[in-house]
Amino acid sequence: MSEKNFFFIIAIPKDEIIEYTTKLNSYISRVFPGKKNPFTLKPLEIGDEDALAKVTIRTTEAEMTDFARRFFGSGYEFIEREDGEVEIIRTTGEETPQDEGNGDVIKH
After folding, report:
1. Could you point out which of 19, 25, 46, 48 has its C-alpha 20 to 30 Å from the C-alpha of 1?
2. Residue 91: its pLDDT value, please?
3. Coil, helix or strand for 85?
4. Could you give the CA distance from residue 95 to residue 37 in angstroms, rounded to a whole number?
5. Across-strand partners of 105?
6. Using a CB cutoff of 8 Å and minimum separation of 24, what contacts does 84-90 make?
7. Cβ-Cβ contacts under 8 Å for 20 (sequence gap 6 or more)
8. The model's pTM
């Protein structure tokens, strides 16, 4: 299977940016142990309460399906964009456990 860029948008509480990104890095690195620097985090917007960021992971669909199931629970969808990237969006309000490093996922 070929690798693609999968991404999702998260809202990170402004007062927890360093702690949150450290936990996210640890979590993603555990899920993709064979990859060096398995994801990129790109700030999109800084609001009053939180910062929106784009998380991109280059991997196969099978590996991303496993990650998405762990990170988002059962309520997610892959949407392939014209530029070849695949967006992951939450399709239900179902929350996953806090220790799994989830953020608020919104459609970009």
Report:
1. 25
2. 86
3. coil
4. 26
5. 10
6. 84/4, 84/5, 85/4, 85/5, 85/6, 85/7, 85/56, 86/4, 86/5, 86/6, 86/7, 86/61, 87/6, 87/7, 87/8, 88/6, 88/7, 88/8, 88/64, 89/8
7. 12, 13, 101, 103
8. 0.79
